[in-house]
From TrEMBL, chains A, B:
PANTHER family for the chain: BIFUNCTIONAL UDP-N-ACETYLGLUCOSAMINE 2-EPIMERASE_N-ACETYLMANNOSAMINE KINASE, ROK (REPRESSOR, ORF, KINASE) FAMILY
Keyword set includes Kinase: yes
Protein family per UniProt: Belongs to the ROK (NagC/XylR) family.
Entry keyword annotation includes Kinase: yes
Domain of life of the native organism: Bacteria
Membrane spanning residue stretches: none
Keywords, alphabetical: Kinase, Transferase
Database matches in Pfam families: HTH_24 (PF13412), ROK (PF00480)
Name the record gives this protein: Sugar kinase of the NBD/HSP70 family, may contain an N-terminal HTH domain
One GO MF term attached to the UniProt entry: kinase activity
SUPFAM superfamilies linked to this entry: Actin-like ATPase domain, Winged helix' DNA-binding domain
Natural source organism: Glycomyces sambucus
Coiled coil spans: none
Amino acid sequence: MKSTSRDIRLRNCFAVLRHLIADAPTSRQILARETDLSVATVSNLVTDLIELGVVVEVGREDSGGGRPRALLAPHAGGGVMIGVDVAETYVQLEAYDLALTVVDRAEERMEASETSPDQVIGHIAAAMDQVRGRLGDRAILGVGVSLPGQVDVTWGVSGFAPNWDWHDVPFRRLLTERLRLDVPVYLDNPLKTITVGELWFGDGRGVDRLAVLILGTGVGAGLAFGGQLYRGATNSAGEWGHTTIDPAGPQCRCGATGCIEAYVGAPAILRQWDEFGGRAAGSQTEAMAALAAAWEAGEPAAVRTVETVAESLAAGAANLLNLVNPDLVVLDGWVTAALGDALVPEFERRLAAHALEAPLKAARLKRNTQERNMVALGAAALALEGHLNRLNTVGSRSRR
Amino acid sequence: MKSTSRDIRLRNCFAVLRHLIADAPTSRQILARETDLSVATVSNLVTDLIELGVVVEVGREDSGGGRPRALLAPHAGGGVMIGVDVAETYVQLEAYDLALTVVDRAEERMEASETSPDQVIGHIAAAMDQVRGRLGDRAILGVGVSLPGQVDVTWGVSGFAPNWDWHDVPFRRLLTERLRLDVPVYLDNPLKTITVGELWFGDGRGVDRLAVLILGTGVGAGLAFGGQLYRGATNSAGEWGHTTIDPAGPQCRCGATGCIEAYVGAPAILRQWDEFGGRAAGSQTEAMAALAAAWEAGEPAAVRTVETVAESLAAGAANLLNLVNPDLVVLDGWVTAALGDALVPEFERRLAAHALEAPLKAARLKRNTQERNMVALGAAALALEGHLNRLNTVGSRSRR
Ligand SMILES: [Zn+2]
Ligand SMILES: [Zn+2]
């Protein structure tokens, strides 16, 4: 519970750099106005960010009579962060510059039979080799990896990955050894990395109380307060997918019944479509695309499925709104991308029947419409946050 | 989202003073160890707290060879805070010294017919007159008032008080005028004041992620992160009582169905006892005491009621655990006091069937067993927090 000037400094640094990435080129004066910090505070932070190689001066602008102001930008030619999205069927690895632009990527397909840590790490290593070859001697500042399941971020351990039946796998150590990495590796799960991605490069930027609802094969939420990811006591915060909306409801894979995930997770959506007489065939993503197309064509089973799922989603989201009272709710995840045109308007319409008036009015609703891989972006942003933490150990501490 | 050194300073000040109140007499060195702050930081804060009249040196202790250390204590002879608990049937007003010890109190009964702001304020004024007379010229540092319903804390307005059908009553202005107060008045609802009370004088002291479940006529939760009350975007956070655990469930007074409050609020508990064949007679509190006695005597309807209510409570609490992942859950409110011996063990037993393993293991469970009025205490603590805010405007800013 200790609060230090280092925490404050880091939080302000995140805010300044997020605005800088969004609005570059920009000036210390504009950054001060946008972050609500003093010009002196921003100037100190910017000096340190320049010293750290994260920010550069790119020119000067006329300030209307006064002294021309220096223009700042992220140091796009500086180091890169690696973000890795490890899913059941693929590994996507992306390299980002300090403006969080993708500078390179590699993808590996994984077979369902490849479930050992060695096999998964093998695919990451193969993707990394490709990208490292092309990056040449450009410095890697850090590596962020998103792994499904429960992750112990302090120890870099995969506590439990249900798809692969992993228990307490020392993933960070294994990965660091295999890749012969001499930079920090940050591990977390997709709920967390997507939320960090939203803070750095999505609608969550500058939002004080953020909730991200992530709809995919699994379902969960990411919470962030004051521009920082909220992890809870044991990094389990956001298990919204396993909150109950009806104890008499269907069985959930977590062992309980009537969890939100048992209604709005991809398998549950496709099961409902099937029960209403639709035809969910092919892979999960193919079937979800077919459902979206059937809804578009007005197929009654598809329309009914979307309505039913929207109703469950509204009940679950209202619970979160009433308890957390966020400023912004972002819908994200591959199911949102695939079925959002149908689902999101139905969901919004039904929310008022479940949420209290005050939190409903307070919460803006957004759907992530970025084409980017927010899991990999957020993993890379975790590495960037780790790198920025060095602000507190290098350079100009005397100025503070 | 701006984070300033003032925020940090205030948060650290709260931590230091909370330990000081709990452990007095104590030294700067022990406070530093307990708060995990540096001795220099603690010393600066203590100097300012002394200057503000909140803390005094009360002696010296031998430090085992070294220089004797000054012993510190809250300035119990200094100013007082007033905490007011406004409920449907009574007004309880308590005066607290800076050690948060009650130094005086007054109580007024209210008739069900007394529903106008004027009548309620009249009772507060009558209680205040009694206490002010006895306090003599002892300085009042601030007044905190807990009002049922929705409160706009910034403007001091009761946005909505359902019992009295109040809408947008400028309560703080009316109270300040009527009482001719020249000290700050802080307004909030019982969910918030009880939680602040737990932070200052309960099990929540020093806890990073705290959830307080408040069981009474209404039901709700208080959340606190980093030692500070979490209000949400519009001070509506914690409306846990109106999260749904079964959409097909009973009607709730909020308009929705199947809210937790519709299962575990006092009227719902007594209704269930009735339905199971019990005899809920007399006032709500009398009937609840009768239910507790019947359970103690093994009356089957009472046993079944407690089991059913515990099951609903466990489902609702598990949702909060899974989403928020707190370090500590405190059960509070008058129903917890009246029925806790029966309800709490049944509740704890059932929680594992609903909560995920990680958040369940992380959360300690406590029942508030203090005999104190936590609503009034928390309201007074809000006034104390307001007074401490002056740290940032008076005295020794140059030392920071
Ligand atoms: Zn579940
Ligand atoms: Zn309700």
